[in-house]
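Sequence only, no structure available. Ideas?
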Amino acid sequence: MRGRRAAVLLVGLLAIAGCEERERANPFDPSNPDTGGIPFLLDARAAHGRVDLVWETGGISGIGLARVFRREAPDGPIVSLTPGGVDPALLAYTDQGALDGVEYEYRLEFELSSGTALPTRWDPARPGPEIPWVADSDGGGLARLTPDGRDLVERIERGRWFLDLAADTVANAIWSADYLAGKILKHASDGGSASVTWDMPQARAVALGAGGERVVAGSFGDGRIEERDADGRLLWSDATGLYLEDLIVASDGALWVGGRLAEETGEIQIYRDRVLSARRPGFGHPVAMVEEDRAIIVLDARKGSLFRFALDGSSGGRSDSVLVDPRDLCPDGEGGVWVADRGRAALVRFDRELKESASVPLPGVLGITRDARGGRLWAAGEEGIHVLDRAGSTVSRLALGPRAIKVELLYRGGIR
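Reply:
I predicted one. Tokens follow.
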């Protein structure tokens, strides 16, 4: 169960100083002969079209039944899902009537044989079609989360060091780049063993073309790029001469590759029809690129700036140098971008003119991804996973070590 598990909130059973018998009626009291100070634990786990509740009773005897209550967060009317109660020994209940995209809160009420009712604290869950995947760059492998990002569903590929993810929302598969082992892997949306694997020493980046039929990956060490089909068969490769950092396939089919040439110089290379058609020098350390509103936006970590290019490669402007240690960026859905700046310990928003428009404190942030359906932001970093609304306010968080670096989203039923 997750670190945020909710303990019992005792209503009306506050300890009264000076009365030993009343104090020991408090389940939080270490001297309580029934509980030993172990509280109830409730965990509401979101899924697609349902919420699964699991709980523990701490070995407390004399519990006659448990009732399940639900409300829409934060203060909606309380609905009893089990008026007649359920057997508390089952330790689980599934709310099959939960609707995707709705924020709920759940509470249990344990009825003791003495007639005392002990309610738990409200525990949130938001069911949905999202399948969030997290890459860990420090041996944590790949993690799959619940749709609301509040719970860990499973970890796979432990011991691997992943630096990038790419979501195939058509075939519902996730591609990943394992830097340390030098592998590109493909997993089905629900995990399991990798269905496709190929060798790429110091694998740094992976990207998909339209429809997921074209997979492009790049190596940091030798700057090699490879294009393969969805089954991993090699179609084309080239040597860029870069210490490659990122690559994307633009909406017009062009491949954009960015990286360093030397310690303090970098460039962008543009491939069309598998031929290098243009170079854009003058960068310090381009670390990430995205397409937004039919423009390519490049993040330069050394210069602390954003650069905008038209799809034909022509320059379209630059931001002021306000970034300190930027690591990643994503579109904001309105022509601008969000930047994960570890140095400023913040998510920084830039409008379509590349002017800073907002800053949200978030220490240790390393990666940022926008939900293409709902517009929520998924931030990964040294403090785990934060899910934020469009305005940048945190709606949920999950401590997830060792070092979460990137989130990508798949969806039940595709991205239609």
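The two ends are 32 Å apart (CA to CA).
Hope that gets you unstuck.
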